[in-house]
Amino acid sequence: MQQLKNIEVLQNVPLDTYSFSQIGGIADYLALPKNETEFITLLKTAKQNSISVTVLGQMSNVILSDDGVSGLIIVTEKMKEININNNQMTFGAGLDMITASEYAMRNSLSGLEWAAGLPGSVGGAVFMNAGAYGGNTSDNLVKIRALDEFGTLFELTKKDLGFTYRMSEIQRNNLLVTQATFELSPRDQNEVKAEMDDFNQRRIAKQPLEFPSNGSVFKRPNGFYSGKLIQDAGLQGKRIGGAQISNKHANFIVNIDNAKAADYLELINLVQTTIKNLHGIDMELEVKLIGRGLNQ
Ligand SMILES: Cc1cc2nc3c(=O)[nH]c(=O)nc-3n(C[C@H](O)[C@H](O)[C@H](O)COP(=O)(O)OP(=O)(O)OC[C@H]3O[C@@H](n4cnc5c(N)ncnc54)[C@H](O)[C@@H]3O)c2cc1C
Q1: Phi and psi angles of residue 4, each rounded to the nearest 5 degrees, phi first
Q2: Which is it for strands 69-75 and 53-56: parallel, antiparallel or unpaired?
Q3: How far apart are CA 293 and CA 235, in angstroms?
Q4: Is pTM beyond 0.85 here?
Q5: Are 169 and 159 in contact (CB under 8 A)?
Q6: Rounded to the nearest whole angstrom, what is the distance from the C-alpha of residue 130 to the centroid of ligand 1?
Q7: Contact 33/76 with Cβ under 8 angstroms?
Q8: 106-128 pLDDT tens trace
Q9: Which of 21, 115, 246, 289 would staple 214 via disulfide (CB 3.0–4.6 Å)?
Q10: What is the pLDDT of residues 24-56, one digit of tens each?
């Protein structure tokens, strides 16, 4: 990776210092591109050198292997540009969704209220089709700019992307999001702010924000709530190593004492086998498993 003198590339990076849940081993290389051009250079260089690439935002919805991640991790956190054109707002993939929603609010624009308090980056939210309080990232999305693994740039509109619950063509085709544009609508700023404050209060009341975590571990099975299934199965509060099924919200696994990814995986396995045995339901993961021995 020597030819990347102007791009910040770190070596042997402990990922627990980056990830929301404070778990994860060592990354061989971790790069922080400042813009799309640097992102493309990194992808092309990695391809030429047969180095595998993983793209991450704020690592708020991932379980990173205790054995680390091989190859190159590209973290988008420095790609934070904001452009506004009438009611359309374009955000760099690395901007956090909380800032994006607050920016819309300060411009008296509606459509991102649901994202008040949503951890993670714009790119991560688009990739996951993150959602809360009846809103989803795809609702007001107009288009994205994205790269494939060779560094080829595409501009794709919402209808190209086939969004459904926490899924889209972006995930199916491994596209790497560099920018997203949302079409918002005018709304009284005080009303926008009041709704966002309400969502933030609800988050504080319902989610275990006092501990490191990675958000909802399981997707919602059709017709059920994961948290309720886990709670009714008597698993709430169950602890393995330093990880615990949250006493506040059973679909969260919290890191209460130097947890390892292995502790998370054991709890996940326990939930999956218990719920399968009780109800015949497959508990599909929402969190992404990344790194040595884990890649999905
Ligand atoms: C306390 C807490 C509360 C949460 N509440 C919610 C909630 O209410 N609703 C909800 O939907 N989620 C929630 N989450 C999960 C998380 O906030 C979202 O999934 C978020 O959108 C992930 O963004 P990220 O930048 O952290 O992505 P990461 O965790 O870094 O990555 C997640 C996935 O996205 C991919 N990815 C990231 N950036 C890009 C990119 N630029 N291009 C292509 N792929 C990319 C990664 O490869 C990975 O597969 C919560 C998490 C926490 C910790």
Answers
A1: -105, 45
A2: parallel
A3: 26
A4: yes
A5: no
A6: 7
A7: yes
A8: 999 999 999 999 999 999 999 99
A9: 21
A10: 999 999 999 999 999 999 999 999 999 999 999
Among the listed residues 111, 121, 127, 119, the one whose alpha carbon sits nearest the alpha carbon of residue 163: 127
Q: What is d(CA 100, CA 73) in angstroms, rounded to the nearest whole number?
A: 24
- Residue of 127, 145, 163, 179 best suited for mutating to test ligand 1, as the one with most atoms within 8 Å of CB: 127
Residue of 166, 168, 226, 246 marked active site: 166
Q: Which residues contact 82 (CB under 8 A, 6 or more apart)?
A: 89, 90, 91, 92, 95, 100, 103
Domains and CATH numbers, the chain: 9-75 (3.30.43.10), 82-206 (3.30.465.10), 226-290 (3.90.78.10)
Residue 284 tokens read as 């599909």
